[in-house]
Amino acid sequence: MLLNLPGLTQIIDSADYAAYVFNIHEINFTAPVPTLRLSLVDIEGSGRQVDFSLAISDLTSFALREYFWLAAHDLTDSHPLLLPYQEPHSSLYIKGHTEHLKELSFDLLQIYLATYGKWQPFPSELFAQLQLGHALLANGPEPLIQRYAAKVGEYGIHTSIIPSYTPAPSNLKVLTLDDNYFVGSRFEFTVRHESE
Questions:
Q1: Measuring CA to CA, which of 6, 59, 98, 170 is 20 to 30 A from 177?
Q2: Global confidence as pTM
Q3: Taking the domain 88-165, which CATH number applies?
């Protein structure tokens, strides 16, 4: 579910820019609460910008792929990146081979992409595990493992799923800024400076 970003929404609304982007200028991971220094920049020629900071409580994971000209933003408590923190985990063991290894590999890749999209890199070691024929194929959130097992079974390979653990309940959320993401429990925005 998409959540309201009160601090960021207020910053955007008060700036009243028709078109804007975010720029990330600095990240401090040594602070007790990791903090980013960002700006909201008017891209319609006024030259105005609002500098603000973002403090992230309980930062669990993040990925920074771009720093400038970020446009899209969302905060949600329902995101593929939260699966490891919300779903029970299992291990999938396989026994057997298939003559259609290339097709099975592609099918497993499609399942992974349908689950995580662009947000998590595919674990390429899975292909080597398939070739072994008798191995631990994957660990992960149970919904993903169940889909893997069903697909592997379609190719005549025997599977065994062993539950491993259930994560403790958490109030984690995901903030995305284009392809960047931050997983944490609280996101606080504070205006630092507004330029004319």
A1: 170
A2: 0.82
A3: 3.30.1390
